[in-house]
Amino acid sequence: xxxxxxxxxxxxxxxxxxxxxxxxxxxxxxxxxxxxxxxxxxxxxxxxxxxxxxxxxxxxxxxxxxxxxxxxxxxxxxxxxxxxxxxxxxxxxxxxxxxxxxxxxxxxxxxxxxxxxxxxxxxxxxxxxxxxxxxxxxxxxxxxxxxxxxxxxxxxxxxxxxxxxxxxxxxxxxxxxxxxxxxxxxxxxxxxxxxxxxxxxxxxxxxxxxxxxxxxxxxxxxxxxxxxxxxxxxxxxx
Length: 238
Description:
Layout: H1 13-24, H2 29-54, H3 61-73, E1 79-83, H4 89-95, E2 100-104, H5 108-117, E3 123-126, H6 130-136, E4 143-147, H7 156-163, E5 169-175, H8 182-189, H9 206-216, E6 218-226, E7 229-236
Parallel strand pairs: 1-2, 1-4, 2-3, 4-5
Antiparallel strand pairs: 5-7, 6-7
Helix pairs in contact: 7-9
């Protein structure tokens, strides 16, 4: 939801002072732009990290938005695998909507925390390699959840090719490189401060991610771009 504002705005003293400093700085426009982009990146990261300490996980606007999108797609009959489930917050929400959900992660400590924090009769957490689990599991899963997984992988295309045959539906959530035009300025200037997490090896723009899924044979059925992330509900092709 947007907002309505009065035409006349209050003066921002700090901005007025910084404008004057900006005019006095004896630097090129490129150097100034690089500096401002770096500062914006730093404060954006601080604001995001602080927001997760301020808002509880169950009421954080970012997570509420993601949950609302995903829960609209899930059906009670579904069996869901949440791959890379981490602390299990998303997995626990999914358990309220579907017949069965398994959260799997190779991080043993994370699985232990998830198991302790979340209890539900339709919810299981497993510390195991996801592919090994799928090959050994007798029951079929029809839905794969990949929430903030692909951006951490060296070979996301190969990963999707390996897993898509086990599922009918795939939910993908990754950071949105197109969330701000400033990222494209950073890219043109070769800025090193352009990632959303130190462990990311990919920052997908919207066209790039859609092209990747098309190559793999995964069809995007619905998409949402909010709170700085891409959320895609996809049908896995055979």
